[in-house]
């Protein structure tokens, strides 16, 4: 029976060859193709944060009083030593005047005690007065000297407090916020302004307790501003809190912006921080999960379409951590290449395909542009 089937098949092949008719050409199979995203943001966890200054200083008066003048407002740039606000100097000026008067009286007592000491010293040498009388004058002089020193220190403190009625900027920066207004009575140490120093900008985020072991200081990240979607700025994790917040159970962290990235952000802007997983490059291309296939020996692979020939070739790739809808490709694929994202399970090696987009519209593929090599 099997011999008859083989003979029949052979006769059919011979007849087809003799007829001179060409074998039917297989029509290209429609497949959904996509280009890998340059950054695998969808496969990286993102954490919301806002732009902060690396150094933020709450500014306050060292003495209390009535705030009579406010010279700056929030968002204004200031210089070191610039007067930001003033208190009513009346009380402090009176205290300084009283301290100076006490100093003058103490110095007058000291001068009198010094004269009595010198006069009794001469008298005791002439044996006109007793030694005990001289010792009493010497003790009175030392007491007057101590009183003069104390009055001198009190006068200096009062003078300093009179100067404390002017609040000055300790360094160059920007007024991030204002907490007091003219006419308000403020206490010593009460915050009036918050100064963001010109020492760099960074992103404040909160890391979940359940994944805290996946983060480390110096870990590279990407920062995307809400006002500039799709634009990624390089950064690293600079600081991670040693303990979790008691209420939110998250760890406060700071992300430092690298290079000139800090000049592209403004205080208070909202941002997302994308943290790549271990072994995942921050700029690794990512493909949809539907593009992942099984190659030889069970290895992961993707179908890559050659724009020139229109043929699909199965290529082995190394993948990173899987995301909700995409996965980063660590090696084996370049950004700009065309990957089959739908219909790959029906393909065979070298098969011609008809690329379409997600709306089933034909696509004209272009060869990827050569990527510049990273500087060493």
Explain this structure.
The protein is of the alpha+beta class and 376 residues long. The chain starts with a helix and ends in a 20-residue tail after the last strand. Helix 2 (90-125) runs antiparallel to helix 3. It has 4 domains: 27-38 and 280-368, conserved putative lor/sdh protein from methanococcus maripaludis s2 fold (Beta Barrel), CATH 2.40.420; 46-54 and 200-274, Elongation Factor Tu (Ef-tu), domain 3 (Beta Barrel); 62-86 and 165-196, OB fold (Dihydrolipoamide Acetyltransferase, E2P), CATH 2.40.50.100; 90-163, Helix hairpin bin (Helix Hairpins). Mean pLDDT is 82; it is low at 1-18. Strands 1, 17, 18, 19, 22 and 23 form a 6-stranded mixed β-sheet that branches. The chain has a 6-stranded antiparallel β-barrel with strand order 2-11-14-13-12-15. It has helices at 2-19, 90-125, 131-163; strands spanning 29-34, 46-53, 56-60, 65-70, 77-78, 83-87, 166-168, 173-178, 185-186, 191-197, 201-208, 220-225, 232-240, 250-257, 270-274, 286-288, 293-294, 300-305, 312-316, 318-319, 326-331, 338-342, 353-356.
């Amino acid at each position: 029976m099997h011999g008859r089937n083989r003979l029949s098949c052979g006769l059919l092949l011979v007849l087809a060859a003799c007829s001179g008719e060409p074998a039917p050409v297989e029509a290209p199979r429609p497949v959904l193709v996509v280009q890998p995203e340059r950054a695998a943001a969808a496969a990286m966890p993102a954490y919301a944060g806002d732009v902060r200054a690396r150094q933020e200083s709450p500014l306050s008066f060292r003495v209390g009083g009535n705030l009579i003048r406010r010279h700056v407002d929030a968002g204004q740039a200031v210089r070191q030593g610039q007067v930001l606000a003033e208190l009513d100097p009346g009380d402090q000026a009176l205290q300084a005047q009283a301290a100076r008067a006490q100093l003058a009286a103490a110095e007058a007592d000291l001068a009198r005690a010094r004269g009595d000491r010198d006069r009794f010293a001469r008298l005791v040498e002439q044996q006109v007065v007793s030694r005990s009388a001289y010792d009493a004058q010497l003790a009175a002089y030392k007491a007057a000297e101590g009183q003069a020193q104390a009055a001198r220190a009190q006068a200096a403190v009062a003078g300093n407090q009179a100067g404390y009625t002017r609040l000055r900027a300790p360094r160059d920066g920007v007024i991030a916020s204002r907490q007091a207004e003219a006419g308000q009575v403020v206490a010593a140490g009460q915050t009036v302004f918050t100064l963001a120093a010109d020492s760099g900008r960074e992103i404040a985020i909160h890391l979940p307790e359940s994944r805290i072991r996946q983060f480390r200081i110096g870990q590279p990240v990407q920062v995307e501003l809400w006002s500039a979607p799709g634009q990624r700025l390089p950064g690293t994790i600079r600081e991670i809190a040693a303990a979790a917040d008691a209420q939110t159970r998250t760890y406060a962290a700071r992300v430092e912006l690298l290079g000139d990235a800090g000049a592209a952000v403004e205080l208070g802007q909202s941002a997302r921080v994308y943290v790549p997983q271990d072994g995942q490059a921050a700029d690794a291309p990512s493909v949809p999960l539907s593009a992942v296939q099984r190659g030889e020996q069970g290895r992961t692979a993707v179908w890559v379409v050659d724009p020139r020939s229109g043929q699909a070739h199965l290529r082995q790739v190394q993948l990173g951590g899987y995301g909700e809808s995409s996965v980063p490709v660590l090696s084996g694929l370049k950004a700009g290449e065309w990957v089959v994202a739908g219909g790959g399970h029906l393909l065979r090696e070298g098969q011609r395909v008809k690329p379409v987009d997600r709306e089933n519209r034909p696509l004209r593929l272009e060869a990827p542009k050569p990527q510049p090599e990273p500087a060493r």
